What does this fold into?
Amino acid sequence: MTLEPSPSPAISSPTPAQAASESSVGPLSHVDAAGFFRMVDVAEKPFSVRTALASGSIRMQIGTLNAIRDNALAKGDVFPVARLAGIQAAKRTAELVPLCHPLPLSGIEVRVSLDESLPGVRVEGFVRTTAQTGVEMEALTAVSVALLTVYDMAKAVDRTMVISEIVLREKRGGTKGDFFSEP
It folds into this structure.
């Protein structure tokens, strides 16, 4: 399969700065007045304890779920590998997301569990720091890479798996206050 380039739109797209000024949520902090992307300067923000919780899932055939439960996959035990991949990914978020600040993470937890109602696997990622900016991206990255690892380890028996529902469920700390979302 060859990917074809998308046709150019007939109407020109607005610059990032124009889009930001027309946004109903206010200007975008990562775009300057000239429309150039930048990493936000957080030097004047106070240090505070910040945490984030994200979650996601991967749906699969029941036989794949059973193979994971029974540790019957050729690549080995999925849960410890997915947990370790999620932890490693959280630590490298700033290398993967261009405008994300590198942060000193003080704690990372990745929980992986079977969910027969999907059927599939659910992942939760919890990240903690004391810094001038939050750890939402680190929690989301941990969940995303843990789920990709599940896919990688089980793809030999099931290529129909679907990764979905990757969401920020909770954010605490910082000047913008706390955020909570239902799972």
Q: What stands out?
A: The chain has two domains: 15-41, 48-180. The beta strands are 48-59, 105-115, 120-131, 162-172, 179-180. The first strand starts at residue 48 and ends at 59. The two ends are 37 Å apart (CA to CA).
